[in-house]
Design brief:
single chain, alpha/beta, six-stranded mixed beta sheet, 11 helices, 22% strand, elongated, binds zinc ion
């Protein structure tokens, strides 16, 4: 179980529990904040179940006469939710959001991360920016529209396990999104301050496990150190990482403009005087959409072959723990036309350095864009927050979007 963050409530704290008096919201935004307050209370850190939060969302939807379909993981502890608002016709729009959040353990929060707190013009809480506010806005919008007037549908597609490698979305896309009359567009509501994001890197996580042959350190010739093998492999990875960083042509749409490779976790060995029987490490590769991970990693795979030949008694296994497809920039797609007409943003499309489900939707053939309230700068941080104005902007966007769906 994930630990709670430590926090020291500063007294008096005028914000907590005092949301509506502190900021004056328009009525739709105030309703979105109420729903957000409830959503934040559900501890949907990726290691936890999201079913209680899904039941809450189902309740809201059913109060509007909308049926939800849940699509469970294999042990039925988590689910994706899919709902259709309006008639099952072509040309609808999918609103995509993830229900899980990153852990708060080891972060210093100024207030309980699972209780919405208002300070100044900001609303604090885990998931406020990434990305429960978008979900809250899409649900709040239902109270201010005439569902019966829609001639094209809005679909809600809420996933689990996005933060641990976009693991929930593939089944959601294949089992549900792909089985409705073709929608015109998918809007992934990751925090973009309601700007258009049209591309992101691919994200790949690899876990490398090495077994050696243990022996006392005084008899090093009798064993094989798993640590020694792991270090040689990691040295090659670091050379690859340096070479990627020196690729200064790069792709200037991205910050940084090159692919990145980092080794986030490593462990190995049992004692100082024993050749390590086991070692493992996890590395993270984020590729520009035009680059192919296996090509980048070819020196690493060569080193595995060399070491496997030199140490036949050792084993090296590489497990691809997550592969989030890149999201490639496409100009003039249906999603761009829709989001620009609804949101009124005519500025250049941005590229994100974070991964999301957008690449998975794009790969399934949907015209896709990222556009959502809040800033990615606050995502995953202690004292994550969303500015009040972002909720207002998103509610305006929802109103125009539902309005657009009243026309064929
Ligand atoms: Zn997110």
């Amino acid at each position: 179980m994930e630990g709670r963050a430590s926090y020291v409530p500063t007294l008096p704290n005028p914000g907590v529990g005092n949301l509506q008096t502190a900021i004056s919201f328009t009525e739709p935004a105030a309703r979105a904040v109420q729903i957000l307050e409830d959503l934040v209370k559900f501890d949907t850190v990726s290691s936890q179940s999201n079913l209680a939060m899904m039941a809450y969302i189902e309740d809201i939807l059913s109060s509007h006469g909308i049926t939800s379909i849940l699509n469970y993981n294999s042990d039925r502890t988590k689910a994706n939710l899919f709902a259709t608002i309006g008639p099952l016709e072509e040309g609808g729009v999918i609103l995509s959001g993830h229900t899980d959040v990153v852990p708060v353990a080891d972060q210093q929060w100024s207030s309980d991360p699972f209780i919405l707190a208002h300070r100044g013009d900001r609303i604090y809480g885990r998931g406020t920016a990434d990305m429960k506010a978008f979900i809250a806005c899409s649900l709040a919008a239902l109270e201010f529209i005439e569902i019966g007037a829609l001639v094209r549908p809005v679909y809600l597609a809420f996933s689990y396990d996005e933060e641990v490698g976009c693991l929930g979305a593939p089944a959601l896309i294949e089992d549900l999104c792909s089985k409705v009359p073709p929608p015109a567009a998918v809007i992934v509501g990751e925090p973009s301050k309601m700007r258009l994001i049209g591309s992101h890197k691919s994200v790949h996580l690899y876990e490398v496990s090495v077994t050696g042959v243990p022996a006392h350190s005084s008899a090093a010739h009798l064993g094989i150190s798993a640590n020694a093998i792991a270090v040689r492999l990691m040295a090659v990875l670091l050379q690859i990482a340096d070479a990627l960083m020196e690729n200064d042509a790069g792709n200037q749409a991205f910050h940084p403009p090159f692919s990145t490779l980092t080794i986030g976790l490593m462990k190995g060995g049992t004692a100082a005087n024993v050749l390590a029987p086991e070692a493992s490490f996890v590395f993270d590769l984020r590729c520009l959409p035009e680059q192919v991970p296996d090509e980048i990693l070819s020196p690493f795979y060569s080193m595995i072959s060399v070491l496997s030949e030199s140490y036949p008694a050792a084993t090296i296994t590489v497990e691809n723990r997550a592969a989030v497809p890149g999201f490639a920039h496409i100009t003039g797609g249906a999603a761009e036309a829709l989001v620009r007409s609804v949101g009124g943003d005519n500025s250049e499309m941005l590229a994100a350095s974070f991964g999301s489900e957008a690449g998975q939707f794009q790969r399934a053939g949907f015209s896709t864009l990222i556009c959502g309230p809040g800033s990615i700068d606050q995502a995953h941080q202690a004292d994550e927050f969303i500015e009040a104005v972002e909720i207002e902007k998103c509610m305006d966007f929802m109103r125009s979007l539902f309005q657009a769906m009243r026309q064929a």
